[in-house]
Amino acid sequence: MTELYVKIAKELSKKLGKGYKIIFKLHPGEVPFIERYKELYGLENVEVVEKGDIYNYLCKVRYVISVYSTTIYEAIALGNTVFVFKHPLSEIYVPKDLGKWVESTEEIVELVKHGFEDTKKYDLNYYFDSNWKKNYRKFIEEIIGIPG
User: Fold this and answer.
1) Is the pTM of this model over 0.90?
2) Which residues of the chain have pLDDT under 50?
3) N or C: at which end does the chain have fewer Cβ atoms within 10 angstroms?
4) Residue 116 and residue 144: Cα distance in Å, rounded?
5) CA–CA distance, 133 with 141 (Å, rounded to integer)
6) How far apart are CA 121 and CA 62, in angstroms?
């Protein structure tokens, strides 16, 4: 998946130009594999982030691009506009009504340059249960078998 994300970042870097900054936040499991993303370090408008709290970065950006990730849900909860890049995995794992689905970097560039905002209203309670702690404890105790 990293190869696709790198390709998207490189294309957006070129097509959007210096007026836009791209933050490329690595999944912690990808950090050791620098050969997969090292070419991004040479791009003037791309910042490669190896560590740090994803929520801090989500609060700094307007747009988030993903194929599939739990970050999609977190970004929507924080008010970001999310572009879901169409891919066989996104079609399996991401609800069709979540975010703005796109098929190319050209489409993203047009939307960004025209200031696209996702105005859909999402029921965050559908994705984030207010009783998550209770549910998690129940899962740990009943499913995994570790007493609370």
Assistant:
1) no
2) none
3) C
4) 44
5) 12
6) 17
Q: Could you count the other beta carbons within 10 Å of the beta carbon of residue 117?
A: 12
Whole-angstrom Cα distance, residue 78 to residue 36? 29
Q: CA–CA distance from 26 to each of 29, 69, 138 (Å)?
A: 8, 12, 32
In angstroms, how far is CA 70 from the centroid of its own chain? 8
- In the chain, the amino acid numbered 139 is F
20: tokens are: 């836009």
Does residue 71 contact residue 54 with C-beta atoms inside 8 Å? Answer: yes
- Tell me the sheet residues that pair with 102: 85
Backbone angles phi, psi at 43, to 5 degrees: -95, 125
- Report the pLDDT value the prediction gives residue 133, as an integer from 0 to 100: 76
> Tell me, what's the pLDDT at 148?
65
Give Cβ neighbours of residue 11 (< 8 Å, ≥ 6 apart). 105
